[in-house]
Amino acid sequence: MSQPINEVTSDELLKDLEDQQRYKVIDVREDEEVAQGMIPGAKHIALQTVPERLGELSKDKEYVIVCRSGRRSHNACLFLDEQGYKVNNLKGGMLDWNGEVVF
User: Where is the Rhodanese domain (predicted)?
Assistant: First the structure.
């Protein structure tokens, strides 16, 4: 812990979701943003609720944290990393996501 946060590109995440499914995706955007679409299979946990919803996450799984541009998700990654979770930030966030979006 307390190491640089790993970043995953949208291409890497898309390939993982199609093939390995190694990652679980957590979307930390606000409700209004999520209403515009999410990465398929993503779980919505708004950034401000992350601390109180830690019980929904497993330290045995590896997560990719997503927001609009990657800044809020990076902050969530820092917090989750400090708590002992395996996290990666989606580089460029949903602005760079080039895969499918579900509504």
Answer: 19-103
pTM of the entire structure? 0.93
Answer whether 63's CB lies under 8 Å from 85's CB.
yes
User: Which DSSP letter does residue 27 get?
Assistant: E
When the candidates are 1.10.20.10, 3.40.250.10, 2.60.40.1120, 3.30.565.10, the CATH number that belongs to 6-96 is 3.40.250.10
Active site residue 77: no
- 14-21: long-range pairs with CB below 8 Å, 24+: 14/98, 14/99, 17/41, 17/99
Confidence of residue 34 (pLDDT cuts 50, 70, 90): very high
Burial class of residue 88 in the structure, from the number of CB atoms within 10 Å of its CB (0-12 exposed, 13-18 middle, 19+ buried): buried
Q: How far apart are the first and last CA of the chain?
A: 35
Q: Which of 50, 67, 76, 90 is catalytic?
A: 67
Comparison of pLDDT for 82 and 103, the residue scoring more:
82
